[in-house]
Amino acid sequence: MSKVHVFEHPLIQHKLSIMRDKNTGCKEFRALLDEISMLMVFEVTRDLPTEDVEIETPICKTKSKMLAGKPIGIIPILRAGLGMVDGILQLIPNAKVGHIGLYRDPETLEPVEYYCKLPEDAQHRELIVLDPMLATGGSASAAISFIKKRGCNNIRLVNLIAAPEGIARVQKEHPDVDIYVAAQDECLNEHGYIMPGLGDAGDRLFGTK
Predict the structure, then answer these.
(1) Which sign, positive or negative, has the C-alpha torsion 138, 144, 150, 153?
(2) FRET partner for 146 with CA separation of 20 to 30 A, picked from 73, 101, 137, 195?
(3) Per residue of the chain (209 residues), what is the pLDDT tens digit?
(4) What is the largest CA-CA distance in the chain?
(5) Using CA atoms, how far apart are residues 81 and 201, in angstroms rounded to an integer?
(6) Rounded to an integer, what distance in angstroms lies between the CA atom of residue 97 and that of residue 130?
(7) Phi, psi (5° rounding) for residue 181?
(8) How many angstroms separate the CA atoms of 63 and 52, rounded?
(9) Is 57 an annotated catalytic residue?
(10) Residues 131-167, buried b or exposed e (16+ Cβ, 10 A)?
(11) Of the residues 21, 50, 104, 150, which is catalytic?
(12) List 24, 45, 79, 200, catalytic entry
């Protein structure tokens, strides 16, 4: 079973509380999501391997540590996942960015892929899939499945807020994918929104309804 990592850092929780407030406007909402994403990536990448390298400071030569192993790929789920990309790129500027878009078939209610563009070497990267809200888990699980079908296996899922239902589905369908969240909320309401949540993240990011 995959692990669920909940980040309870005071700065993350403070900023998330402001995002939840219905009176927070688009500009501030976008800035806060950017900031929280940057704070979260510290913990998401905590276990990345390092190697000793020799460098020369202005004083002398010394051994120091640098990242080793697989490079990073960032895969936002359109459209709300886009709001998490810039914050992560500020800390990992060499990461390559792919995109995946899904919609729900009105008859079968199953997720359908309408767009997927991954880095050419995605199979050789640690991939971080981004979506602010993990509600039913349908979109996230489908996105991970589509990515796996392209030969990728090193995948982490990063969400701002998650419902227990969404976590359970991803863990059931992708037990190899760890989940990283800023908050695990109570449940879904009858409309599939996370309670207490923060509403529709995409609408609040881009000012649409």
Answers:
(1) negative
(2) 195
(3) 889 999 999 999 999 999 999 999 999 999 999 999 999 999 999 999 999 999 999 999 999 999 998 899 999 999 999 999 999 999 999 999 999 999 877 777 678 899 999 999 999 999 999 999 999 999 999 999 999 999 999 999 999 999 999 999 999 999 999 999 999 999 999 988 999 999 999 999 999 87
(4) 68
(5) 9
(6) 11
(7) -135, 155
(8) 6
(9) no
(10) bbbbbbbbbbbbbbebbeeeebebbbbbbbbbbbbbb
(11) 104
(12) 200
- Write the DSSP string, 120-174: TTGGGSEEEEE-SEESSSHHHHHHHHHHHHTT---EEEEEEEE-HHHHHHHHHH-
Helix (H, G, I), strand (E, B) or coil at 113: strand
Does 203 participate in catalysis according to the annotation?
yes
Q: Which residue has the tokens 């806060």?
A: 32
DSSP-derived letter for residue 69 is S
Give the contacts of 40 (CB within 8 A, at least 6 positions apart).
7, 12, 158, 180, 182
How far apart, in whole angstroms, are the C-alpha atoms of residue 88 and residue 126? Answer: 14
Active-site residue, 104 included: yes
Output the six-digit token pair for 33: 């999501």
200: annotated active-site residue: yes
